[in-house]
Amino acid sequence: MGNNKKIALITGATSGIGESTAYELANNYSLILCGRNKEKLDELEENLSSKTKVITLEFDVRNHQEVSEKISSLDNSWKKIELLINNAGNAHGLDFIYEGDIEDWDMMIDTNVKGLLYVTKYVLDSMIKNNSGHIINIGSIAGKEVYPKGNIYCASKFAVDAISQGMRIDLNKYNIKVSQVNPGLVETNFSMVRFKNDKSRSKSVYEGLNPLIGDDIAKVISFIVNCPDNVNISDLTVLAKSQASSTVLNRK
Ligand code: NDP
Ligand code: 8X3
């Protein structure tokens, strides 16, 4: 079962886009599923292990030491990671810059930017050694255009955009593909986190939009990883039909 499948590591596999991606990639990859929620990681392992080989790593991407220890603790048979999906991340708050909460700012920069860098650094060791690999960073439409009160979340995703471009340039000589997927509004747990569990505010973000769901983005990721080896989808923005830009939405 799955012994000769390539290995993919997915961060933020315990919810939303990451969870959908785990189910989608289980068809073709052995999976290292990462997250902070042990119970959810166990549930995923149980549900997916009939389809493929699965192991889980429990760590907070903001904790450099933990990231290093968990990734370097991988058994030899799991060390050759071919695909890294840098997905863990969230928005925290939606406030004018002069009203922003410093804890929210730290959380977004530490998770979306520094966390992505920490995970990448340790996974890259083996990709560079093997002279092959594929990294897919989950950016956002918020990394392409700034919207009112988006300030620091947008800054974190603009940083991801610059990091993806930098990775693509620096890793080119090692045959490592770097892709970035930039979703628009996807109905996941994202808004519950952004609005600190305010259910009605979270729900209102997607009302009347027929928004994207995690499975839509997982299918796009699957398309990207299944392209021929000579093809790299470098940067791809995915919107719901009802969304024209960060602020232009056709609500029914
Ligand atoms: P969810 O809130 O549903 O999932 C976020 C995932 O990231 C969870 O598994 C969460 O785990 C994990 N995560 C968050 N912080 C950390 C951390 N410090 N360490 C480890 N794991 C962490 O949201 P989405 O699925 O929507 O978000 C996934 C990615 O997609 C994010 O990078 C987000 O910015 C991006 N995105 C989302 C869009 C949307 O509209 N939903 C649009 C564009 C981009 P835990 O439950 O433990 O917090
Ligand atoms: C998530 C999409 O528009 O809420 O990155 O920033 S948005």
Layout of helices and strands:
Elements: E1 6-10, H1 16-25, E2 29-35, H2 38-48, E3 54-58, H3 64-72, E4 81-86, H4 102-130, E5 133-138, H5 151-171, E6 176-183, E7 186-187, H6 190-194, H7 199-206, E8 212-213, H8 214-225, E9 235-238
Parallel strand pairs: 1-2, 1-4, 2-3, 4-5, 5-6, 6-9, 7-8
Helix pairs in contact: 1-8, 3-4, 4-5
Bound molecules: NADPH dihydro-nicotinamide-adenine-dinucleotide phosphate and 2-hydroxyethylsulfonic acid.
Residues 12, 14-18, 35-37, 60-62, 87-90, 111, 115, 138, 140, 183, 185-186, 188-190, 193, 214 line the site of NADPH dihydro-nicotinamide-adenine-dinucleotide phosphate.
Can you walk me through this structure?
The protein has 252 residues and is of the alpha/beta class. The chain has a single domain, classed as NAD(P)-binding Rossmann-like Domain (Rossmann fold, 3-Layer(aba) Sandwich), CATH 3.40.50.720. The protein has helices at 16-25, 38-48, 64-72, 102-130, 151-171, 190-194, 199-206, 214-225, and strands at 6-10, 29-35, 54-58, 81-86, 133-138, 176-183, 186-187, 212-213, 235-238. It has a 7-stranded parallel sheet with strand order 3-2-1-4-5-6-9, sandwiched between helices. Strands 7-8 form a two-stranded parallel ribbon. Strand 5, helix 5 and strand 6 form a beta-alpha-beta unit. The longest helix has 29 residues, at 102-130. The protein is globular and about 50 Å long. The N and C termini lie far apart (47 Å).
